[in-house]
Amino acid sequence: MTERRLQHVMGMPVVVDVRDDGAWPDAVDTVFAWLRFVDTTFSTHRPDSEVCRLDRGELALADAHPLVREVLAHCERLRGKTGGYFDARAAGRLDPSGLVKGWAVDRAATLLSEAGARRFCVNAGGDVVVRGGPWRVGVQHPRQRDRVAAVVELTDAAVATSGAYERGEHIVDPFRGRPPAGTLAVTVLGRDLATADAYATAAYAMGERGPAWTARLRGCGAMTILAGDRVLCTDRFLRHRVPMLSPP
Fold first, then answer.
1. Closest by alpha carbon to 182, among 221, 148, 209?
2. Strands 120-124 and 157-163
3. What Å distances lie between residue 194 and 110, 148, 160, CA to CA?
4. Fewest CB within a 10 Å sphere: which of 155, 162, 190, 217?
């Protein structure tokens, strides 16, 4: 039994693609219900979300949902690990989106696994978690919508890309208060999407200093596309990269 389902949730298309015969079918419904809950709770666009209420001072952190407290505590840990470049308040308001999407999709993958699915892919706006496999995942080219910049082959892994081509210049260098210059996109491979997404966001915020930082990451691979289409890849990323017929 296989199923591929697409829904628009959390402001993006989410595709759940399951390709095995486990006892999982109802779990796809559970996954989308979970993502809708996350959207309601963490949205930075819904005035009644807990994140917006926290940002306005209408809700005390101690009174917030336990998962909100968990995510914001995780954001603080990541802020330390990234030297301050991953910051939920980088743009001057509370916005944990750089972690929430990956964190929510990781939980969605856990729900599918717990229901018996063994080979599946969850694609949330281009950020992907795969189990089983191998799976081939294309990384969107930052300037040409009809092309991929790279293809990677993964099993039990996650891939996240940060850049300005989907949502505009929404990522801010927290030390300068403006979008970084010189970098078009950063892609990070890792075991979990929450960490990969946060690290990609931080590396992008670093601008041209990002590649040196990603080269030191343990357990993650990275590809950075700089202005002028210069591509820098770590060794771990190259181990997963699939040769293409033509360069990006």
1. 209
2. unpaired
3. 13, 23, 9
4. 155
Token pair for 112: 């599918």
pLDDT band at 22; cut points 50, 70, 90: confident
Side by side, the strands of the sheet bearing 2-9 are 2-9, 12-19, 120-124, 127-131, 157-163, 183-190, 221-226, 230-233
Q: Bridge-partner residues for 7, per DSSP? A: 14
Residue 137 corresponds to which tokens in the numbers above? 């995942």
- The whole-number average pLDDT for the span 20-30 is 84
Give 142-184 pLDDT, tens digit per residue.
888 788 999 999 999 999 999 876 555 678 899 988 888 889 9
pLDDT band of residue 201 (cuts 50, 70, 90) is very high
Residues facing 186 on adjacent strands: 162, 224
Residue 28: HSE in the Cβ half-sphere, 13 Å Cα cutoff = 21
Pairwise CA distance, residues 141 & 221, whole Å: 18
Residue 10: which of 137, 92, 122, 149 has the closest Cα?
Answer: 122
**Where are the domains positioned within the chain?**
2-242
Q: What pLDDT digit, counting tens, does each position of 98-148 carry?
A: 999 999 999 999 999 999 999 999 999 999 999 998 999 999 988 887 889
Question: Which amino acid, residue 121?
Answer: C
